[in-house]
Amino acid sequence: MNQSHTQANTDTHTHANTHTQANIHTHTHTHTETKKVLDRLSRAIGHMEAVKKMVEEGRDCSEILVQIAAVRSAVNNIGKIILKDHIDHCVVDAVETGDRKVLEDLSEAIDRFVK
User: Fold this and answer.
1) What is the mean pLDDT of residues 54-63?
2) Model pLDDT for residues 60-114, shown as the tens digit of each residue
3) With the CA atoms of 1, 94, 104 and 73 taken in that order, what torsion angle do they form, in degrees rounded to the nearest 10?
4) Per-residue buried b or exposed e for 26-46, using 16+ beta carbons within 10 Å of the residue's own CB
5) Which CATH topology does 33-113 take?
6) 18: number of CA atoms within 13 Å, CB side?
């Protein structure tokens, strides 16, 4: 994946994804939520480190499970931000250009995300 980032709050990414040997899909779009996603990922990683420390310290299982639930919720919310950004930009571009592969990929990604 090639990525070129601007210094502003938005990033422009160029993706070249090989779907099959003969079918290469390339599109360019702007992500508006990159900083928010990265900030939330950093916080979620920090929470996971705290959960790891709780386990190492032998903390109560109930406390650990509550913290894991909070991390899972945070990760799901990050996914929702990425999904909305993808729909607002990639999918809109795909619909405008008639690129059905992006819609098929989105459907597969959603199936995996909601499992």
Assistant:
1) 97
2) 999 999 999 999 999 999 999 999 988 888 888 888 888 889 889 989 989 998 8
3) 70
4) ebebbbebbeeeeebeeebee
5) Methane Monooxygenase Hydroxylase; Chain G, domain 1 (1.20.58)
6) 3
- Per-domain boundaries in the chain: 33-113
Query: Is residue 21 over pLDDT 50?
Result: no
DSSP three-state, residue 2: strand
Of residues 40 and 15, more confidence is placed in 40
Contacts of 105 (CB under 8 A, 6+ apart): 17, 19
Q: What is the pLDDT of residues 32-50, one digit of tens each?
A: 889 999 999 999 999 999 9
Alpha carbon distance 60, 54 (integer Å) = 8
Asked if 38 and 45 count as a contact pair (C-beta separation under 8 A), the reply is: no
Q: Comparing C-alpha atoms, which of 29, 21, 38 is closest to residue 88?
A: 29
Q: Where are the beta strands (DSSP E) in the chain?
A: 2-4, 11-18, 24-31
